[in-house]
Design brief:
258 residues, alpha/beta, four-stranded parallel sheet, 10 helices, globular
Length: 258
């Protein structure tokens, strides 16, 4: 039973901030929706096909987005009464534009989200160490391995294995991009008068079930739904990751604060 009055939640994050782990934990409770990246632009055709929505030009953009939103809401709820979705900062503008097609004339994104999903809890995922975050992102791209299970079994691989190669310039670009995306979220929350629930990558990595129980509390759900749940993915940090992080920091030290 949902005692909070929330109809759904949005996990607002950046790449490699722990969102895959958190989505899996929430889904596994059986009471907190089935959150996923329904509005990750490269994945839209695949989701549309899954939901039987034609993507062949036979629909207007408005018709497509109306049907797509309905499909996303159904998938994000699963067989529970609560909608869940993961949204990265770089997908926010496109998502807002699509909602505006379906619900034109509303004053801001907060109103559009409420019209589409009802009362929503915004959960803000952050990672303090953007260098480690950038290294994780680049290494996953280079090796093709994005997620492993706690026993080391591959969970998500997008390409055959390649040996990762250190690239300070690329790491610096990703650090800047991650900071920009974080700034985007902070500004968006302020502009839309949203006070999100903060969740740090560090807390999630340290004690994922404690974070899950806190989220269930915030959503008005029984925290006992977390009992017996095991994390589906493990950290990919290894000796190579640590070497890259240390090397980058030695080459490009952060300016002193003060």
């Amino acid at each position: 039973m949902n005692r909070s009055g929330f109809d759904g939640y949005i996990l607002c994050g950046t790449p490699r901030s722990g969102s895959t782990l958190l989505c899996g934990l929430l889904s596994d409770t059986g009471v907190a929706g089935r959150p996923d990246s329904f509005y990750h632009l490269p994945s839209l055709p695949e989701w549309a096909a899954d939901w039987g929505i034609p993507d062949d030009g036979s629909l207007t953009a408005t018709e497509f987005n109306r049907l797509y939103l309905a499909g996303a809401i159904g998938a994000g709820r699963g067989d529970t009464g609560l909608f869940g979705m993961r949204l990265m900062g770089h997908s926010l503008r496109d998502f807002s534009d699509r909602l505006n097609m379906v619900y034109p004339g509303l004053p801001d994104d907060a109103a559009r989200f409420e019209r589409a999903f009802g009362r929503v809890l915004f959960i803000h995922l952050t990672r303090a160490d953007t260098v480690a975050q950038a290294v994780s992102w680049i290494k996953a791209e280079q090796t093709g391995l994005w997620h492993v299970a706690p026993d080391g079994t591959e969970v998500e691989r997008t390409a055959p294995h390649r040996q990762p190669v250190y690239d300070a310039g690329r790491i610096g670009q990703r650090v800047a991009a991650l900071k920009d995306e974080q700034t985007l979220w902070t500004a968006w929350f302020k502009r839309n008068r949203i006070d999100p629930l903060p969740i740090s990558y560090e807390a999630l990595s340290r004690d994922p079930l404690d974070v899950l129980r806190r989220l269930l509390d915030a959503l008005g759900l029984d925290r006992r739904a977390a009992a017996g749940i095991k994390p589906g993915v493990a950290r990919l940090t290894d000796a190579t990751s640590l070497d890259w992080i240390a090397r980058y920091r030695a080459e490009r030290p952060e300016p002193a604060q003060g």
